[in-house]
Amino acid sequence: MATAAKVIPVGNSAGIILPKEILARLNVQKGDTIYLTEGPQGIRLMPFDQEFATQMEAAREVMRENRDVLQSLAE
């Protein structure tokens, strides 16, 4: 299923207007937080999940602490 979303200016940034059908499928409302993750098939939208947020913070901490090692592995 492909659904179009419009990108609009929001101050010095940009926002995306999500159709109400997409908001319903994500089970989110105006003002809720969503996560955008990038993978091999593109960008994925997910509703806020405290467990996921905790895991992401742990991953960021590991990446900060091991920045040099990860950079070497990337080369």
Describe this structure in words.
This protein has one domain (6-74): Pemi-like Protein 1, Chain: D. Helices cover 41% and strands 29% of the residues. The protein has helices at 20-26, 50-65, 67-74; strands spanning 6-10, 13-17, 34-39, 42-47. β3 (34-39) and β4 (42-47) form a beta hairpin.
Attribute tags:
75 residues; alpha+beta; Pemi-like Protein 1, Chain: D; two-stranded antiparallel sheet
First-last Cα distance = 37 Å
Point out poorly predicted stretches: none
The coarse overall form would be elongated
Largest sheet: 2 strands, antiparallel
Q: Estimate nothing, just give the exact number of structural domains.
A: 1
Number of strands: 4
CATH architectural name: Ribbon
Helix-strand pattern? EEHEEHH
Percent of residues in β-strands: 25-35%
What would CATH call the class?
A: Mainly Beta
Question: In short, what is this structure?
Answer:
The protein has helices at about 20-25, 50-65, 65-75, and strands at about 5-10, 15, 35-40, 40-45. The protein is of the alpha+beta class and about 80 residues long.
